[in-house]
Amino acid sequence: MSFSKWIGASIGWSFGGPIGAIIGLALGSVVDAMANGKDVEAATRQRRRVNYETQRHQPQTQSGDFEVSLLILASIVIKADGKQDQRELDFVRQQFVGMYGKEQANHAFRLFKEINKQQHISTRQVCLQIKQMMQHASRLQLLHFLFGIAKADGFVTDSELSQIHTIAGYLGISHVDYESIKAMFYENADNAYKILEIDKSATNDDIKKAYRKMAKKYHPDKVVHLGEAHQKGAEEKFRQVQEAYEKLQKERGF
User: Which positions, given as ranges, span the membrane (predicted)?
Assistant: First the structure.
């Protein structure tokens, strides 16, 4: 699949507003790079093809909207501590290869590198567009992925944590949901309680109710509209909820 056909098939509502402006700049750079060694007429045809493929789609949430949102937010988090660790960049690429296969991952990472070059990205404007158009379950999946990026080099810095917290707020993710996903990336005696969004004073019945609630919230079917690739990502959150519940079962003996 050519780059223009991939990007056209991938973008819905995200090719508008502040996200559209960011992607527009990145696409221009990608097409210019692809034109290296081609004549001007061929490069012009490629630009027109990209514009046509992207603009002909209806503004509905689809897998590509998640991918584009993910690339932009990943760029913001990676640059939060003032440096770009190669392990974090490798994590992004590996995740995309695992989800989409090598060819599509190469397209996505090419776009990511151009997004990453942009110096002035408004976190607030991007997140507000995502909040308006994307379902809550998909936004939770975005947050989970961002923690994975930040943790790829072994630890989450204070600046990365602050940036992810800011993003969560703009995305309309509650404090308890934020703490639940954050707990999935830290080793702490109380993490099982935090993942289930309860405290240590909870009764065994409270724990059972919390597990049912969280299992429903993080069930992979919640992101079925994003395609099989993102369901696999959601399965990781679902698994961690199950492990948190089993840990408390074992500790309390119920």
Answer: 6-28
Task: Give the tens place of pLDDT for each residue, 77-106.
Answer: 988 877 777 887 787 788 778 767 787 778
Question: Residues 6 or more apart from 166 whose CB is under 8 A from it?
Answer: 123
To which H or E segment does residue 104 belong? helix 102-116
Q: What is the pLDDT of residues 203-251, one digit of tens each?
A: 999 999 999 999 999 888 888 777 676 677 788 899 999 999 999 999 9
Distance CA 238, CA 236 (A): 5
Domains of the chain: residue spans and CATH? 1-173 (no CATH), 175-254 (1.10.287.110)
The pTM of the full predicted model, rounded to 2 decimals, is 0.80
Contacts of residues 227-234 at CB distance under 8 Å and 24 or more positions apart, as own/partner, are 227/63, 229/63, 229/99, 229/100, 230/63, 230/66, 230/99, 230/138, 230/141, 232/98, 232/99, 233/95, 233/99, 233/141, 233/144, 233/145, 234/137, 234/141
| Gap between the Cα atoms of 139 and 61, Å rounded | 12
Terminal alpha carbon distance of the chain? 53
d(CA 133, CA 112): 21
Burial zone of 47 (CB within 10 Å; 0-12 exposed, 13-18 middle, 19+ buried): middle
Q: How many other CB atoms are found less than 10 A from the CB of residue 26?
A: 24
Contact criterion met (CB below 8 Å) for 10 and 66: no
Judge whether 241 and 195 are in contact, CB under 8 Å.
Answer: yes
* Residue in the structure block whose two tokens are 């750079």: 29
